[in-house]
Amino acid sequence: MAKLLKNLYNAQYINLLANELQLSYEAFNKESFINSVFDKIWQQRELKQRMRHISTLLDIYLLKDYTQNIEILKATFSRMDYSFALENMIFQDYVEVYGINYFEVSMDALEYFTINSSSEFAIRAFILRHEIKTMQQMQTWAISPNHHIRRLASEGCRPRLPWAIGLKQFQENPSKILKILDILKDDTNIYVRKSVANNLNDISKDNPEAIKILAKKWIGKNQHRDWILKHGLRTLLKKGDREVLNLFDFHQPKHIQLTSFYLLESIKVGENLKFSFILNSTNNLGKLRIEFAIEFLRQNNKYNKKVFQIAEGYYKENSKEFFKTYSFKPISTRVYYKGEQILHIIVNGETLISKRFHLG
């Protein structure tokens, strides 16, 4: 069984944290703090609930002065093992809860704590309360020499950041985000570029036209921008948006014929769906984005379509066979319902064949 994320906050980590806090603040009651962490409902708490529980206890067991506590926490954080990047977000969570009225001190703290961890969740409370000042701060972070800080400038303002509260104002109008991403569009660090791409992908879900306009300006300028765009427009590519597909030279496959299609027509939950096909052309196949989609039967007898990639590239040959499998082994993120499902083979955004199969 996979390890539950909430169990990252375990006795090993809490003891390490308590020891380091006592080194930073001699009057810190280590034993009482540890006992308070592992209270009667500890096992019932999920990951973020445990994080908030610990950060709340920090306020109880440290001083009554926020600014002084930040200095204690900085000293502690500097000695924490960087392999505990996720667990160490308790430091940022403390800032989110108790520092909202201490803007300058909190911005400095989040900048400090984001290195080898991340302040992407905590900064959102400040965007919601102090949007203008916080977004100005993030523009400054976007030119930092430290890549962790530059990434925070992008990751922290993603309108649909997973596990985080949505930024509805930026879902409606992403112009302030785009100013930051424009600064980061040629960043040499892959960690930063991934964040920029993920931010663009978020924006494309609510403002596809704005992202298309931006993409036309950036495309072909350098390899970093092209990489960001390819990953940042992935949702639009999966949707078969013709304008975006053409931007990457995935043109309509009028010259392509699909033959020799093979599909297992009946499988059981836990087995693999196997299928294959041949793509043919009178000339070379050219630049192709080859995908398959499955319309999964849902509990309400409706269908939910998911698109998956098979291959992508420039094919000089005029005929090529493709094989693929998809596992119907149950997973935590998808429940399979027995009955008729539908498979589609998609080339450059166009469905070339659709076939039904039975899941039993």
Summed up:
It contains 16 helices and 8 strands.
Order of helices and strands: HHHHHHHHHHHHHHHHEEEEEEEE
What percentage of the residues does DSSP assign to strands (E)? 15-25%
Largest sheet: 5 strands, mixed
CATH topology of the largest domain: Serine Threonine Protein Phosphatase 5, Tetratricopeptide repeat
Explained architecture:
- It is a single chain.
- With 360 residues, the chain is an alpha+beta fold.
- It folds into 2 domains: 5-247, Serine Threonine Protein Phosphatase 5, Tetratricopeptide repeat (Alpha Horseshoe); 257-359, Immunoglobulin-like (Sandwich), CATH 2.60.40.
- Helices cover 45% and strands 20% of the residues.
- The chain contains 16 helices and 8 strands.
- The chain has helices at residues 11-24, 30-37, 47-61, 66-79, 90-98, 103-113, 123-129, 131-141, 147-155, 168-172, 175-184, 190-206, 208-218, 223-232, 234-238, 242-247; strands at residues 257-263, 266-267, 272-280, 286-297, 303-315, 319-327, 339-347, 350-359.
- The strands form 2 sheets. The protein has a 5-stranded mixed beta sheet with strand order 2-8-7-4-5, with no helix packed on it.
- Strand 7 and strand 8 form a beta hairpin.
- Helix 4 runs parallel beside helix 6 and helix 9 (147-155) runs parallel beside helix 12.
- The two termini are 25 Å apart.
